[in-house]
Each structure stands twice: as C-alpha cells, then as structure tokens.
Amino acid sequence: MALLPSKLPLTYPNSTLFSSPPRLSSLHLPPFRVSCAKRTGKKRYPSEKKKLKLKHKEVLTTVENKFEGTWRLFKLGVPVEKDPGKDFHGLSDALMQEIAKVLEFPVASLLPREAFSVIRKSFDARKMLKEPKFVYTVDMDVHRLLILEPRARDFISDLEPKVGLMEHFAKEKVSNDVISIVHDLKSNQEVVGANGFNSHSGPYLRMSNGKPKIAVVGSGPSGLFASLVLAEFGADVTLFERGQPVEQRGRDIGALVARRILELDSNFCFGEGGAGTWSDGKLVTRIGRNSGSVQAVMKSLVYFGAPKNILLNGKPHLGTDKLIPLLRNFRQHLETLGVSFYPIPVLGFVTIKFGTRVDDLIEEGGHLTGVKVSDSRDKLKLSKQKLGYDAIVLAVGHSARDVYQMLLSHNIPVIPKEFAYSGLANEVEKGRGKVPVADYKVAKYVNIDTKNPSSNSVAASRSCYSFCMCPGGQVVLTSTNPEELCINGMSFSRRSSKWANAALVVTVSTKDFNDLGFQGPLAGVEFQRELEQRAAVMGGGNFVLPVQTATDFMDRRLRVTSVPPSSYRLGVKASNLHELFPGHITEALQQSILAFDQELPGFLSSDALLHGVETRTSSPIQIPRNLETYESTSVRGLYPVGEGAGYAGGIVSAAVDGMYAGFAVAKSFNLYHGDLETVLGKAQNSGSVICTCTSLIETDFEQTVVGPVTATVELMKNT
Known about the structure:
CATH topology of the largest domain: FAD/NAD(P)-binding domain
Strand order of the largest sheet: 1-15-16-19-14-25-22-20-21
Number of domains: 3
Mean pLDDT: 78
Number of strands: 25
CATH superfamily of the largest domain: FAD/NAD(P)-binding domain
Oligomer: single chain
Structural class: alpha+beta
Strand content: 15-25%
Radius of gyration: 26 Å
Helix content: 10-25%
Largest sheet: 9 strands, mixed
CATH architecture of the largest domain: 3-Layer(bba) Sandwich
C-alpha cells in the first residue's frame, strides 16, 4: 500500500500567485466579459453562418458525366419519431423520403434501396432546431440506380454538386484498411531496397537478414500502426513496450483499484494499447472524419474486431471492453508478420511478452544506431542490453517523462507547448429508446479587462470549454507515481453507469509556467508534477481524491464535508479545490461555470462534484521533426510520432500519425516509393496549442491540446 509523504510542501514557487482569492460575492465581476461561443459561431464569428449559407448555394466544378460514379448526399435529416433509432443504420422509409426530396423524385417508394448506402449517421439535438433529428450522409450508386430505375435519369441530369450538401465522385469512392492499402501498393510497384541501405556495425545484439531493422518504442495507437505498416512492407520490426500486454495489464489495474497496489510501468497510462485502452474509447477526430487516412484507420480497427457501426456513427465509441480483444487480435497479426515483442530472447527462445523499457539511445556520428533496454520491473537495471537498429520510431505516450529527459541528454530539442488545464463536468444520462446517450459541448471566452485587471490575473484572456464528454462512465486513477495524483474518465461500450464526466478546460501558456518559477523545455512537465503532488497531499494520501461541490467551488469555501456519491472507487475527500489552482485559473473556471449554467441550466448545483486533478490528456512538449520525412530535425534515424511527441491528441489522430510515419520510414529505406497523398490525402500536422482535459482520448485537435490540471464535475442521475 503506497503512502504519500506528509512533509510535501503545499506552497508553489511563487506563493503570492496562489494566495486564496476573495469569495465570489466579493469578486469584481464587471471587468470580466464572458461571451458565448456556440457551434453556430453566431456570436464569435457573426459572418460565418451567412458565409456557410452562401457556400451551400455555390456550385462546385462542373461534372463531366453525371450518370457515372457516385453522388454523396449530406445533411439528410430525419426527425426522431420517424427514425428507427440510434442502433439502426439502414435505409428507413423516412430517409428515403429525404433522398427523394433532394433528387426531386416524386415517389420515394420507387427509388431502389440497393442503389443507396448509409455512410454516416449522427444525432443533432441543438436548441436552435425545432425538434431533434438524426442526420445522415448517403452515397448513391448512379449506375445501379439507372439499371433498377431508368426514369431517375432525368432527375440526375439536374443535379449539381454544392459545398457541404452534395458531391460527385467520378469513380466509386472506396477506402481500404491499412493492410489492404499496403498490399495494393506492393502489387502495383516493384518493392525494392531490401539491401538498399547501409547497415551499422557495432557491439550490439542484431540480426542480419537483409531487411532494415526498425525499433518501435511504445505500443499505443501510433506505435501499433507504424509497426503494422513497416511489417507489411517487409521490415524487421521490434516493438518495445514498458508496460504489459492487456491480459496482465488488466490484472495490474485490478490490483490498483481493489488493493491500491500501483505498478509503475503497468497501469492506466502504461501498457499495450497506450493510455487510451482504459479510457472512454472515443474515435472522434477533427482531422477529417471522412478523409482517406481516418477511414483507413477505422476500417483497420474493424478488421481487428471493432463493430462495423464505428464506420457510420457520427461520434463513434468503442469502450475498454471492446478495445481489449481488438488489441489482442492486432498483436496476433503482428506476430504472424514476424514482429518481435520483447523482453530479449533468453536461452535461445523468444518469450512473447512486454515489460521492456528503453533507457537510452545509441548515437554514432549524428545517427542513431540502437537502443539500450532493460526489464521494466528490474529497478536496478541489471538486465540492460544494447541492441542495434537502423531507425527508431519513438511512439511513447504523454506520460513518458523519463524519455523526455533522456532526449535532452542527447541534445535533441524538446519544445515546451502552451497548454490548458481544466475542470471536468460529469452529467449522467443514459440513451433511452431511440435517442443515443447524452452528450454536450459548451465553450466560453473569458476576457479580462486589461484596463482594470484583477490583482491575481496574469493573462488578459483565456478560453474555457468542455472537452471529452464521457457519458455513462467513471473517474479512474491515472497516476504513474504514488506521490502524484491525476485522474481520467473511462467507460465501457454500453456506457451504462449512472455517471458521466467531461473536462472543463482553461488554457495556460508558458508565461504561466515562468511566473511559477518553472523554466526550460520541461517547464510544462514540472507544472503538471507540482499540481499532481499538491492534489495528492490535499487528498490525504493513499490515492484518495480531493473533491468539492460546484457550489462550494464557486463560493470558495468548504461548507459540506458529506459530498455526493462519486464513481471514483478509491475514495474521495471534501477539499478546497479552489485553492489547488492558481488564482487566475480559479477565476476563469468560475466565470465559465456561471456562463455554462445559463446555457445548460443545472450545470451549477450542489449535486455536481468536482474532482482534482487531471494532467495527462496530452503531451506538454513537442519534438521537432521534418514535415515530409517525419525524421527528427536534430539526429538521423529518429522518428518522433504520436501524442507523446506532440503530434496527436486521441486514438484516431495518433493512429493516423503512426501510419503516415510508417510509410515515411518505409520510403526512406526504399521499401515503398510513391506519393502517399494520392492514396490517403495530405497528412494534417497538429498545431502548437496543448490543452488539459479530464478525458485522455481526446479528441483529435487540429491544434492539439493537453492538460496539466483538471477538476472533474460529476452528477449522479436521479433514479
């Protein structure tokens, strides 16, 4: 049983910045301006809605032959009472009526359903609508339609592609899984270069089989998909994972939850599948839901056992119970391709298990030539070995802080990223009948009047928004050190618990780190660590979580010691969470909660319970790399990818980044030559903003966000 030190200081490097701010009743609210940022953009971007309407009227490029290929129809709305419900993904009578309206075809029942296929289905319950509805995207096979219903020809002749409403594809738009894509590329080109590179010699354990030897560090989405691409192209891939495979990892997590035994390298953060395995399992992304790269990842997940409805749902979700067998199938496929899973072979045979930590890189003349590894449970590192490789794909997750320090020891640049920290709002709603499980997203922009700034404010403005809504889930411990406390939201596929959670994110910048005395490339890491340690002490140790009701948080007082029930299983303690954060962050959260309550009445109540603290949503650093080759800008042979390197923010975006990196490495060794953009489209690199949120599987941002702190608000459903 791990106990926390009682002497841990509760003050920050600059204690004046964390002095207890005045209560809400005495705050000077007028200097603050809180404006709503609804998804319509009506207030923040007053001209965007008008522009969107005009775009829908714009006709795209002229279609040469409207009677061939595929027409894609967007935004086909079906009211809830006319739709079979959330679990139906076929063509209902009501949907056929909507299709007939778009085609201006007089009798919907005469349209052959065999010519249409549902591509996507989502649920829209925004207040601006007269009634909630399901929204469909449907593909129409023109050739099949004309064979079955020739009278549709006249109606097709009048169709014109319009932005966001209707598109035409001369050829059938088909995307394959990663395995099929690689096989097709190999069959269409002569795969050369098995010996077209220079091998490095040295005193390392290394095989010589005429293939490039690639080490992939980390078995999260990035590492798995990079390994898959490289192995399918014929590279000799070794996958290193400091944690355990999902079978043993599940037992280690069970010991943590039931007996408070924390395995430092096998927990909610470390192990097969990465931190996203025991999380909400969201597959939502903002890098292009219908893009070729995202579809390739999604279809690969289906290939390995995910339900097919993730290809159609507007907000696809797997859940931990679905991810575990999927990862097992993924591993077995890699093994059939010859991918090695370490520890190192002992007595002449290979034990297929994980538990190997990469302790250092081997560098010769500005080029990486190998790695130093040891058994992750060998605290004395007596099992350390040197292994030679031609390239290293660094796909560590956001919690591998020791790896960041190791990179700096090799003078490999690590850039601190601006990020945010948040509070998590949890509201319990189960999907009832036709309607899917409750989901929401709110956003506010808190602007501090620079002419009359608050005494403890260090920034003029901050964005505040909800993030990673996890309905029907629970709060879990994601600490990797018994002296630090951080949390996350997770759920199973059915999302059937009586709780839900969502992070309330507040942006912070490097200026915030510097004002607290944290400098250098790892300032964000130190900022995270400080808050995690403070939360651990506030909870009293033994992984007990500090919590506070939303009303007490707003009033900056602790009036109640008996708090509402929580889904967190290791115990909670009523605490002054408003003292956990810097004063200006507490102010921003308070202003946001007030505004959110106006938009979602009931958001602020004594039943809402804030939990602290979440810090591991994404990486607080970025490792610079070449945008085209994915190779490090400072050392040859190193390919930093995924969330830990600062280039992704969720399961799907991390998998996409690893997939592109796999192709880039294969191309550098002449295993593949060609233009991947023609197959999957151009890769979208993330921006430089990082934000904190309570739920790790983030969402993929075009601008990635990770967080150092999160308070979780949890509401239990009245039954």
